[in-house]
Amino acid sequence: MKVLLVEDDQFHAAYLRETVQKALPEAEEIVLARDGHQGETEARRGAIGAIVMDLQMRGRNGIEAARTIWRERPATRILFWSNYSDEAYLRGISRIVPKESAYGYVLKTASNDRLHLALRSVLVEGQIVVDREVHQFQQRQIRPVEVLTEAEYAVLVDVSLGLSDRMVAQRQGMSMRTVQNRLLSLYDKLEVERAADGDMQMNKRSRAVARALALRVINPEALETAEGELQRWLVRQARQGA
Amino acid sequence: MKVLLVEDDQFHAAYLRETVQKALPEAEEIVLARDGHQGETEARRGAIGAIVMDLQMRGRNGIEAARTIWRERPATRILFWSNYSDEAYLRGISRIVPKESAYGYVLKTASNDRLHLALRSVLVEGQIVVDREVHQFQQRQIRPVEVLTEAEYAVLVDVSLGLSDRMVAQRQGMSMRTVQNRLLSLYDKLEVERAADGDMQMNKRSRAVARALALRVINPEALETAEGELQRWLVRQARQGA
DNA sequence: ATCCGGCCTGCGGAAACCCGCAAATGCCCT
DNA sequence: AGGGCATTTGCGGGTTTCCGCAGGCCGGAT
After folding, report:
1. Residue B167: which nucleotide is closest by CA–C1'?
2. Distance B189 CA to D6 C1' (A)
3. Which of A191, B128, B210, B212 could cross-link B217 (Cys pair, CB 3.0–4.6 Å)?
4. Contacts of B161 in chain A (CB under 8 A)
């Protein structure tokens, strides 16, 4: 059994390697990659079936790397080990995990025992393990947003990237009015009105983005990925339009 | 000499303590705080003159903590030790550092030697030390934005929080037209138009925020702090209006 | 069958945003 | 003093956003 660690922080990497050595004595080789790209390369080369992956890394982040790895070898088991429990990360992962695979999500603040357990459950037994704190994001005393629809989330991301109503409509295949309806429900769920004491009227669109960021419904990492997709869509549109 | 470490990541804290012990043999006591609040308390209690501070911490971040510490004891020397080199952090720090004090800014990716040197230069010699990579943020292949004015930056933050033109004008003491002029120059500097291929017209306001985030001119941490100030300003306005 | 709730769509208008034009102010430099 | 140069402000109008009203489609519960 070969295990790949993808982690760009040297201290975390050292700790992780140590724990993996203890938790998985059947691992005859432990490879370390220091960002998403390296991780993809190593996974491809080493025919690796078990991965522990950090999410936040400079350059290529963990979700992007996981996507390409799973596309090439869907049975790969991946344990995500991250500092954050943002809704955006969860959404990103649950969207791309293949049916035949196992994955886990453990916070870096978890105890050594918890990490140990998760390593065995996911990488050896092939189970699905998600830290409870992650799933209901209790930490940072942030009350979870009333859950968003897929459509609402898609519109939120597009708006956060700076698309106009017309562009969102075009991209999502809706009418402009529908986009605006999604926006209305977003304004509601994100509590955009809350600060409106009297004559103070905010720019709801920007306020919604700010609230979504504050509540960690979206995060800059996810936006970066979405921006890439947007750019690709844009060139496709330009070609079609010409 | 007493040294206070403020760092919420246990692995980083362990490494930091070790390095400080080696670099500063004159330190007869090394105290560890695990977030900004604890840091303030310890600094107050221990009559501490030298601090190494992480910037990103859950709860109260390093900049907020540094501000209150410097307000109470302006001669305190603080070395910031951070993962990031965002413009927003730099701006936040240079805005609050007192004249009579020394500070430094070192990236966590710096070598042990660099950290060692910075520890001695800042905490013992009282010099100002800033990692070169930080000051011109070359990393992440992000080309720095043509530097923003203070006024532009203030408007950008307000807009990112979701304020309308009128509110920004009121808060910054400008006319609405001036706010819009600042916005125009922001749209220019942040290259908001770049994606406008043909009929694709973006929402410039939201796009500007997205660009600023992507270029790391602002970051969610700084926005969180700014949101707090905004809330305080709002209640003040409400009282005055009534 | 009927009703209910959710999502989609068009219409129309108030408000906000975006911005060119032009005049006023202030600062620096010669 | 006078000539740039940047910043501020008002005016006016084109565009976009925001949203109530009203109607259509659809799946599920009564």
Report:
1. C16
2. 16
3. B212
4. 206-207, 210
Inspect the interface and report whether the beta carbons of A234 and B197 lie closer than 8 Å. Answer: yes
- How many domains does the structure of chain B reveal? 2
Question: Which among B9, B167, B207 has the least Cβ separation from residue A200?
Answer: B167
Measured CA to CA, the distance from residue A16 to residue A34 in angstroms comes to 13
CB contact under 8 A, A167 and B200: yes
Provide the residue range defining the domain that includes B224: 150-241
Residue B82 maps to a domain: yes
Here the CATH number for the domain that contains residue A190 is 1.10.10
pLDDT one-digit tens code per residue, B185-201? 999 888 887 765 556 78
Q: Which segments in chain B show pLDDT lower than 50?
A: 137-144
**pLDDT, block means (10 residues), chain A with 242 residues:** 93 94 93 93 90 88 89 92 79 77 88 93 88 56 58 92 93 92 91 69 94 88 88 83 54
Q: Using a CB cutoff of 8 Å and minimum separation of 24, what contacts does A229-234 make?
A: A230/A158, A230/A161, A230/A163, A231/B195, A233/A171, A234/B195, A234/B197, A234/B200
Is A180 among the domain residues?
yes
| Tens-digit pLDDT profile for residues B113-145 | 999 999 999 999 888 888 877 655 433 334 445
Are B59 and B95 in the same domain?
yes
Q: Is residue A20 part of a domain?
A: yes
A191-218: burial string, b at 16+ Cβ within 10 Å, e else: ebeebeeeebebbbbbbbbbbbbebbbb
Do A109 and A170 have their domain in common?
A: no
> Are A206 and B210 an interchain contact pair (Cβ–Cβ within 8 Å)?
no
Of A12, A159, A234, the CB nearest to B195: A234
Instruction: Tell me, yes or no, whether B155 and B181 share the same domain.
Output: yes
> Which residues in chain A are closer than 8 Å to B195, comparing Cβ atoms?
231, 234
